[in-house]
Design brief:
This protein is mainly α. The chain is built from 13 helices and no strands. It has one domain. The longest helix is centred in the C-terminal third of the chain and has 30 residues.
């Protein structure tokens, strides 16, 4: 989606994160497996990785003109989202399942706070990333400071008890901010693979203990969940960025370029009015058909978005 820094390891991490969300979070939850359903919350780390990557890339970028940057970001994000939303709600109108409230919320990109019809709830991510983009000039100016990061953590935890969405939003913004801050210290961090594995394992253990004893509470659902996801996210990022090295590859370029569009389209075929997961009695066939439709619509969405974007550039 973004060519700010063509780093193949980052491309691979972005593709992996997309697969985590599509398969681990969404597809697994539709399969008749209690074990796979329970693992979906762990695969949600893909969202945190996306945010960290965005923060890291824009932390490295020297942004001279924020007005131009905002316009370019809005075009890259909102053009495919709006094309998809218009088609989605037209289809909902056709089957007499249209909601004006959700349509307006979607146009304003407030799905995370107001809600969304089943099938586009995942676009709440767009709400968060747009907030992060708006805050970028402020966050980018901040120097690396452990006290500020700790204060941000405390505020996020307190916010979680005031309002769950507020707290989660703050944790998401903090993840984006940490990506920016990582740029300033990455050359000073020297963690070996065994160290990363140990930190990763400790985060998983804390998560499982929290799940066992505090599931359903703000302490687990927002604070332990977010802190461990951020830790796991950091482990993945450091591992890929430091230890995974590949030469530029057309296949990697292709899947990276389509990952955002696939993220937008896939969920409507898994749940809701246009669900394909119940098309036959065979889960494997249903899964293949669902992913195929998601892929085809992603390709079409990408082409339509490029056409609209080129017209707007005239």
């Amino acid at each position: 989606m973004d060519k700010v820094n063509k780093n193949v390891s980052i491309q691979l991490l972005r593709i992996m994160s997309m697969l985590f969300v599509i398969f681990g979070c969404h597809l697994f939850s539709e399969l008749n497996s209690t074990f796979l359903t329970k693992t979906t919350q762990f695969f949600n780390v893909g969202v945190f990785i996306f945010l960290f990557i965005f923060g890291y890339l824009y932390g490295k970028k020297n942004i001279q003109d924020y007005k131009k940057w905002y316009i370019n970001r809005a075009k890259k994000i909102l053009i495919p989202v709006y094309i998809f939303l218009i088609i989605f709600f037209l289809l909902k109108l056709f089957v007499n399942d249209f909601s004006l409230k959700y349509f307006i919320a979607a146009l304003l990109n407030l799905e995370y706070y107001i809600g969304a019809p089943v099938g586009i709830g995942h676009l709440c991510f767009i709400t968060i990333i747009l907030i992060c983009y708006i805050l970028t000039p402020i966050l980018k100016k901040q120097k690396f400071n452990y006290f500020e990061i700790l204060l941000f953590l405390i505020l996020s935890a307190i916010g979680s008890y005031i309002n769950s969405k507020l707290g989660q939003s703050l944790f998401y913004i903090l993840t984006y901010f940490l990506g920016m801050q990582y740029v300033k210290v990455e050359n000073k961090i020297n963690i070996k693979i065994l160290g990363l594995f140990f930190i990763f394992l400790v985060a998983i253990i804390i998560r499982l203990i929290g799940l066992r004893f505090f599931d359903g509470t703000v302490l687990y659902d927002r604070i332990i969940f977010s802190l461990t996801q951020m830790t796991i996210c950091l482990c993945f990022f450091i591992f890929f960025n430091r230890y995974i090295h590949f030469s530029p590859n057309k296949l990697i370029d292709y899947f990276d370029s389509i990952s955002f569009y696939l993220y937008i389209t896939h969920y409507m075929f898994m749940v809701g009015t246009f669900r394909l997961m119940g098309l036959t009695q065979n889960l494997l066939i249903n899964s293949i058909i669902t992913i195929l439709f998601a892929y085809i619509t992603a390709v079409l969405l990408k082409k339509a978005s490029k056409i609209v974007e080129s017209r707007l550039s005239i």
